[in-house]
Design goal:
Radius of gyration: 24 Å
Strand order of the largest sheet: 1-2
Shape: globular
Number of helices: 13
Structural class: mainly alpha
Helix content: 55-70%
Number of strands: 2
Number of domains: 2
Amino acid sequence: MDLGSLTPESKRVSGACHEVRTRTAFATLGGWTFVTPQPRETVTDIDWLTRDLPADARDRVRTAANLADAWRGCERAEHLIALALSAGLGRALVVRAVAELVGDAMAAHARGLAEQDAAPVRDLRVHRALVTALDWVGGRADAKEAWAAGFAAAEAASAMNDPLREAGARAASCLAFACDEEADEAFYAHRGYLVQAVEHAHVLLGDAAAAAARVRAEIPLATFLEAVDRRTRMRSEIPPVDPEAEATDSFYC
């Protein structure tokens, strides 16, 4: 057999992130298995970072000159949070950023009521959800405690007739549900509790630019770019090839 004639067979696999993977060709000669691996092709940073963004936001980010400009120019706090999670930022850091935003929104609502000489109607279940989320960030509460507080806040929200109060309660509830370090990354992104918390907070704030600025204040640009760099290096690593596993025709391999 002419070893020079062994050429790897590449197969394009189109997935959610349009990542290209390769198959490896195997040939056996005199009891030896010759493997000709193909390097894995990767997509650009913007492509995989924007997979959880709405189409319009994804287009705006992809047309930015670079990631720094994309982060600075993003106009919606929920899109910044989606980018931060895609970049692999620690959940505690992202939860804290959203907690600060939710706290600002609830404080702004209370100030608005005071200006109207209307006494705010407080529900301790909502306050407890926000406090428990911050306790989780600080390691003083676990995920079970946070979820219990989240369910209590959700129950409170369901009984509220004022849409603004309900939005605040649901923001606190979603924030508490996001306090989960063990959840699979894909499942965590699919549930989108942090993005939902920001969206509910928007109802109270009514100022998208201020909300985005608050998130950027809590998650500095340098921190975001460092996370992107780590995730990019991790994605570029090629796992070791197991010739025995790939060469077999077994259904169970």
